[in-house]
Design goal:
The longest helix is centred in the last third of the chain and has 20 residues. Helix 8 crosses helix 9 and helix 10 runs antiparallel to helix 11. A hairpin with a 2-residue loop joins strand 8 and strand 9. By secondary structure, the chain is an alpha/beta fold. Bound molecules: pantoate. Pantoate binds next to strand 2 and helix 8.
Length: 284
Protein backbone atom coordinates (compact mmCIF):
# COMPACT_ATOMS: atom_id res chain seq x y z
CA UNK A 1 0.00 0.00 0.00
CA UNK A 2 1.29 3.45 -0.89
CA UNK A 3 0.55 6.73 0.91
CA UNK A 4 0.28 9.57 -1.61
CA UNK A 5 0.71 13.12 -0.40
CA UNK A 6 0.89 15.12 -3.64
CA UNK A 7 -1.45 15.70 -6.56
CA UNK A 8 1.45 15.05 -8.93
CA UNK A 9 2.07 11.55 -7.58
CA UNK A 10 -1.67 10.89 -7.53
CA UNK A 11 -1.97 11.86 -11.20
CA UNK A 12 0.94 9.51 -12.04
CA UNK A 13 -0.67 6.54 -10.25
CA UNK A 14 -4.13 7.21 -11.67
CA UNK A 15 -2.70 7.52 -15.20
CA UNK A 16 -0.90 4.16 -14.75
CA UNK A 17 -4.15 2.47 -13.61
CA UNK A 18 -6.05 3.96 -16.55
CA UNK A 19 -3.35 2.86 -19.03
CA UNK A 20 -3.72 -0.70 -17.74
CA UNK A 21 -7.52 -0.47 -18.11
CA UNK A 22 -8.08 -0.98 -14.38
CA UNK A 23 -11.33 -0.04 -12.64
CA UNK A 24 -10.86 2.34 -9.71
CA UNK A 25 -12.86 2.40 -6.47
CA UNK A 26 -12.68 5.54 -4.32
CA UNK A 27 -13.66 5.81 -0.66
CA UNK A 28 -13.50 9.46 0.47
CA UNK A 29 -12.99 9.79 4.24
CA UNK A 30 -11.79 12.25 6.85
CA UNK A 31 -9.90 9.51 8.68
CA UNK A 32 -10.43 8.33 12.28
CA UNK A 33 -11.58 5.18 10.53
CA UNK A 34 -13.98 2.69 12.08
CA UNK A 35 -15.82 -0.44 10.95
CA UNK A 36 -18.32 1.70 9.03
CA UNK A 37 -15.48 2.95 6.80
CA UNK A 38 -14.06 -0.57 6.71
CA UNK A 39 -17.32 -1.84 5.19
CA UNK A 40 -17.02 0.75 2.39
CA UNK A 41 -13.39 -0.17 1.77
CA UNK A 42 -14.16 -3.93 1.68
CA UNK A 43 -16.85 -3.30 -0.89
CA UNK A 44 -14.61 -1.06 -2.98
CA UNK A 45 -11.79 -3.66 -2.88
CA UNK A 46 -14.16 -6.44 -3.93
CA UNK A 47 -15.78 -4.50 -6.80
CA UNK A 48 -12.77 -2.79 -8.40
CA UNK A 49 -9.24 -3.61 -9.59
CA UNK A 50 -7.72 -0.85 -7.45
CA UNK A 51 -8.92 0.91 -4.30
CA UNK A 52 -7.99 4.49 -3.35
CA UNK A 53 -9.00 5.83 0.07
CA UNK A 54 -8.64 9.53 0.82
CA UNK A 55 -7.89 10.50 4.41
CA UNK A 56 -8.33 14.26 4.44
CA UNK A 57 -9.95 16.41 7.12
CA UNK A 58 -11.40 18.96 4.73
CA UNK A 59 -11.20 22.42 6.35
CA UNK A 60 -13.65 24.03 3.92
CA UNK A 61 -16.61 21.94 5.13
CA UNK A 62 -16.27 23.02 8.79
CA UNK A 63 -18.21 26.12 9.70
CA UNK A 64 -17.02 25.75 13.28
CA UNK A 65 -13.27 26.16 13.86
CA UNK A 66 -13.40 24.33 17.19
CA UNK A 67 -15.05 21.33 15.55
CA UNK A 68 -12.27 21.28 12.93
CA UNK A 69 -9.55 21.50 15.58
CA UNK A 70 -11.13 18.71 17.64
CA UNK A 71 -11.76 16.37 14.72
CA UNK A 72 -9.87 13.12 15.57
CA UNK A 73 -6.79 12.42 13.43
CA UNK A 74 -4.61 9.30 13.44
CA UNK A 75 -3.09 8.54 10.03
CA UNK A 76 -0.78 5.74 11.16
CA UNK A 77 -3.64 3.80 12.77
CA UNK A 78 -5.85 4.44 9.72
CA UNK A 79 -3.08 3.26 7.37
CA UNK A 80 -2.70 -0.03 9.27
CA UNK A 81 -6.42 -0.74 9.01
CA UNK A 82 -6.50 0.18 5.30
CA UNK A 83 -3.55 -2.06 4.52
CA UNK A 84 -5.24 -4.99 6.26
CA UNK A 85 -8.35 -4.39 4.14
CA UNK A 86 -6.45 -4.59 0.85
CA UNK A 87 -6.50 -0.89 -0.10
CA UNK A 88 -3.67 -0.05 -2.54
CA UNK A 89 -3.47 3.75 -2.27
CA UNK A 90 -4.12 6.16 0.60
CA UNK A 91 -4.42 9.77 -0.43
CA UNK A 92 -3.35 11.97 2.50
CA UNK A 93 -2.59 15.48 1.23
CA UNK A 94 -2.20 18.63 3.32
CA UNK A 95 -4.88 21.33 2.89
CA UNK A 96 -2.25 23.43 1.09
CA UNK A 97 -1.71 20.62 -1.41
CA UNK A 98 -5.46 20.29 -2.06
CA UNK A 99 -6.32 23.98 -2.26
CA UNK A 100 -4.74 27.22 -3.39
CA UNK A 101 -4.68 30.06 -0.81
CA UNK A 102 -7.54 31.67 -2.74
CA UNK A 103 -9.65 28.52 -2.60
CA UNK A 104 -9.04 28.24 1.13
CA UNK A 105 -10.20 31.78 1.73
CA UNK A 106 -13.16 32.07 -0.61
CA UNK A 107 -16.39 30.19 -0.07
CA UNK A 108 -17.03 27.73 -2.85
CA UNK A 109 -20.59 28.41 -4.08
CA UNK A 110 -22.70 25.63 -5.49
CA UNK A 111 -26.40 25.74 -6.39
CA UNK A 112 -28.04 22.85 -4.51
CA UNK A 113 -31.55 23.80 -5.64
CA UNK A 114 -32.57 24.06 -1.99
CA UNK A 115 -31.12 20.75 -0.72
CA UNK A 116 -28.63 22.72 1.38
CA UNK A 117 -31.26 24.86 3.10
CA UNK A 118 -32.75 22.08 5.20
CA UNK A 119 -31.56 19.87 8.08
CA UNK A 120 -27.72 19.70 8.09
CA UNK A 121 -27.48 22.51 5.54
CA UNK A 122 -29.63 24.81 7.66
CA UNK A 123 -27.70 24.03 10.87
CA UNK A 124 -24.25 24.17 9.28
CA UNK A 125 -24.33 26.98 6.71
CA UNK A 126 -21.70 26.47 3.99
CA UNK A 127 -20.99 22.87 5.06
CA UNK A 128 -22.24 21.24 1.86
CA UNK A 129 -20.39 23.77 -0.30
CA UNK A 130 -17.17 22.47 1.26
CA UNK A 131 -18.25 18.84 0.85
CA UNK A 132 -19.03 19.32 -2.86
CA UNK A 133 -15.78 21.24 -3.30
CA UNK A 134 -13.63 18.41 -1.93
CA UNK A 135 -15.63 15.51 -3.35
CA UNK A 136 -15.69 17.00 -6.87
CA UNK A 137 -11.94 17.61 -6.63
CA UNK A 138 -11.34 14.02 -5.53
CA UNK A 139 -13.50 12.74 -8.41
CA UNK A 140 -11.58 14.93 -10.83
CA UNK A 141 -8.17 13.76 -9.55
CA UNK A 142 -8.88 10.04 -8.99
CA UNK A 143 -11.36 9.53 -11.89
CA UNK A 144 -13.00 6.63 -10.08
CA UNK A 145 -15.25 4.05 -11.70
CA UNK A 146 -17.20 3.81 -8.44
CA UNK A 147 -17.24 5.95 -5.30
CA UNK A 148 -18.54 4.67 -1.96
CA UNK A 149 -20.43 6.69 0.66
CA UNK A 150 -22.26 5.71 3.86
CA UNK A 151 -25.98 6.31 4.32
CA UNK A 152 -25.41 7.71 7.81
CA UNK A 153 -24.72 11.08 6.17
CA UNK A 154 -27.92 10.71 4.18
CA UNK A 155 -28.25 14.34 3.08
CA UNK A 156 -24.62 14.41 1.95
CA UNK A 157 -25.28 11.32 -0.17
CA UNK A 158 -28.40 12.91 -1.74
CA UNK A 159 -26.36 16.01 -2.58
CA UNK A 160 -23.53 13.96 -4.12
CA UNK A 161 -26.05 12.08 -6.27
CA UNK A 162 -27.49 15.42 -7.38
CA UNK A 163 -24.03 16.78 -8.22
CA UNK A 164 -23.05 13.71 -10.24
CA UNK A 165 -26.36 13.55 -12.11
CA UNK A 166 -26.02 17.19 -13.08
CA UNK A 167 -22.36 16.91 -14.06
CA UNK A 168 -23.15 13.86 -16.21
CA UNK A 169 -25.01 16.23 -18.46
CA UNK A 170 -21.63 17.88 -19.01
CA UNK A 171 -19.76 14.54 -18.98
CA UNK A 172 -17.42 15.69 -16.21
CA UNK A 173 -17.10 12.42 -14.35
CA UNK A 174 -17.71 9.92 -17.17
CA UNK A 175 -19.66 6.89 -16.03
CA UNK A 176 -18.92 7.29 -12.34
CA UNK A 177 -21.31 5.29 -10.15
CA UNK A 178 -22.11 6.43 -6.63
CA UNK A 179 -22.58 3.42 -4.36
CA UNK A 180 -24.80 3.92 -1.28
CA UNK A 181 -23.68 1.76 1.64
CA UNK A 182 -25.85 0.94 4.68
CA UNK A 183 -25.17 2.36 8.15
CA UNK A 184 -23.01 0.10 10.31
CA UNK A 185 -24.12 -0.05 13.95
CA UNK A 186 -22.71 -1.39 17.18
CA UNK A 187 -24.59 -4.35 18.68
CA UNK A 188 -26.42 -1.83 20.93
CA UNK A 189 -27.59 0.15 17.88
CA UNK A 190 -25.30 3.20 18.06
CA UNK A 191 -24.38 4.23 14.50
CA UNK A 192 -20.60 4.10 14.02
CA UNK A 193 -19.08 7.56 13.65
CA UNK A 194 -15.63 9.08 14.05
CA UNK A 195 -17.26 11.49 16.50
CA UNK A 196 -18.08 8.60 18.87
CA UNK A 197 -14.41 8.74 19.88
CA UNK A 198 -15.20 11.98 21.67
CA UNK A 199 -17.96 10.44 23.82
CA UNK A 200 -17.25 9.42 27.41
CA UNK A 201 -18.25 5.87 28.35
CA UNK A 202 -21.43 7.16 30.02
CA UNK A 203 -22.27 9.28 26.96
CA UNK A 204 -21.71 6.24 24.71
CA UNK A 205 -24.34 4.37 26.67
CA UNK A 206 -26.74 7.31 26.66
CA UNK A 207 -26.31 7.74 22.89
CA UNK A 208 -27.64 4.21 22.26
CA UNK A 209 -31.10 5.59 23.09
CA UNK A 210 -31.13 7.49 19.79
CA UNK A 211 -31.48 4.33 17.71
CA UNK A 212 -33.81 2.74 20.28
CA UNK A 213 -36.24 5.66 19.94
CA UNK A 214 -35.92 5.71 16.14
CA UNK A 215 -36.66 1.97 15.95
CA UNK A 216 -39.72 2.40 18.20
CA UNK A 217 -40.93 5.14 15.86
CA UNK A 218 -41.08 2.64 12.98
CA UNK A 219 -43.66 0.71 14.99
CA UNK A 220 -45.60 3.90 15.82
CA UNK A 221 -45.60 4.87 12.12
CA UNK A 222 -48.04 1.99 11.46
CA UNK A 223 -50.84 3.87 13.23
CA UNK A 224 -49.73 7.49 13.87
CA UNK A 225 -49.36 10.50 11.56
CA UNK A 226 -46.00 11.95 10.48
CA UNK A 227 -46.48 14.94 12.81
CA UNK A 228 -47.29 12.66 15.76
CA UNK A 229 -44.25 10.44 15.16
CA UNK A 230 -42.02 13.49 14.76
CA UNK A 231 -43.23 14.89 18.09
CA UNK A 232 -42.92 11.49 19.83
CA UNK A 233 -39.30 11.05 18.76
CA UNK A 234 -38.27 14.57 19.75
CA UNK A 235 -40.02 14.34 23.13
CA UNK A 236 -38.72 10.83 23.91
CA UNK A 237 -35.10 11.77 23.17
CA UNK A 238 -35.25 15.12 24.94
CA UNK A 239 -36.61 13.33 28.02
CA UNK A 240 -33.34 11.39 28.33
CA UNK A 241 -30.71 13.05 30.48
CA UNK A 242 -27.71 14.10 28.38
CA UNK A 243 -29.48 14.11 25.00
CA UNK A 244 -30.89 17.11 23.13
CA UNK A 245 -32.44 16.97 19.69
CA UNK A 246 -31.29 19.65 17.26
CA UNK A 247 -33.72 18.57 14.52
CA UNK A 248 -35.72 15.54 13.51
CA UNK A 249 -37.35 15.68 10.08
CA UNK A 250 -39.35 13.04 8.26
CA UNK A 251 -38.74 13.58 4.55
CA UNK A 252 -38.95 11.82 1.19
CA UNK A 253 -35.92 9.54 0.68
CA UNK A 254 -35.11 11.00 -2.75
CA UNK A 255 -36.15 14.65 -2.71
CA UNK A 256 -35.60 15.24 1.04
CA UNK A 257 -38.78 17.33 0.97
CA UNK A 258 -41.11 17.08 3.99
CA UNK A 259 -43.67 14.34 3.49
CA UNK A 260 -47.12 13.72 4.91
CA UNK A 261 -47.00 9.92 4.69
CA UNK A 262 -44.52 7.18 5.44
CA UNK A 263 -44.18 5.56 2.02
CA UNK A 264 -40.59 6.13 0.85
CA UNK A 265 -39.91 8.27 3.94
CA UNK A 266 -36.77 8.64 6.04
CA UNK A 267 -36.40 10.22 9.46
CA UNK A 268 -33.18 12.24 9.79
CA UNK A 269 -32.01 13.30 13.21
CA UNK A 270 -29.24 15.27 14.86
CA UNK A 271 -28.79 14.98 18.60
CA UNK A 272 -26.32 16.56 20.97
CA UNK A 273 -24.97 13.99 23.39
CA UNK A 274 -23.16 16.24 25.85
CA UNK A 275 -20.96 18.40 23.61
CA UNK A 276 -20.85 15.90 20.73
CA UNK A 277 -23.15 16.30 17.74
CA UNK A 278 -24.39 12.93 16.45
CA UNK A 279 -26.43 12.22 13.36
CA UNK A 280 -28.50 9.18 12.45
CA UNK A 281 -31.49 8.22 10.34
CA UNK A 282 -34.09 5.53 9.86
CA UNK A 283 -36.09 4.47 6.82
CA UNK A 284 -39.85 3.93 7.28
O1 LIG B 1 -18.40 12.01 5.02
C1 LIG B 1 -17.25 12.47 5.17
O2 LIG B 1 -16.42 11.93 5.88
C2 LIG B 1 -16.86 13.73 4.43
O3 LIG B 1 -17.90 14.64 4.37
C3 LIG B 1 -16.29 13.46 3.01
C4 LIG B 1 -17.33 12.86 2.09
C5 LIG B 1 -15.10 12.54 3.11
C6 LIG B 1 -15.82 14.78 2.39
O4 LIG B 1 -14.83 15.40 3.15
Amino acid sequence: MQIIETKEELRRQVAACKRQGKTIGLVPTMGALHQGHASLVRRSVSENDVCFVSVFVNPTQFNNKEDLAKYPRNLSRDAKLLESLGCQFVLAPTPEEMYSAEEMNTTFEYDFEGLDKIMEGKMRPGHFNGVVQVVSRLFYLVQPTRAYFGEKDYQQLAIIHQMVERSKLKDTFGDLQIIDCPIVRQADGLALSSRNERLSSIEKKTATNIYKVLSESVKSAKSATVEQVQRQVIDAINAIDGLEVEYFEIVDQTTLLPTKDFSHAIGCITVYCGPVRLIDNIKY
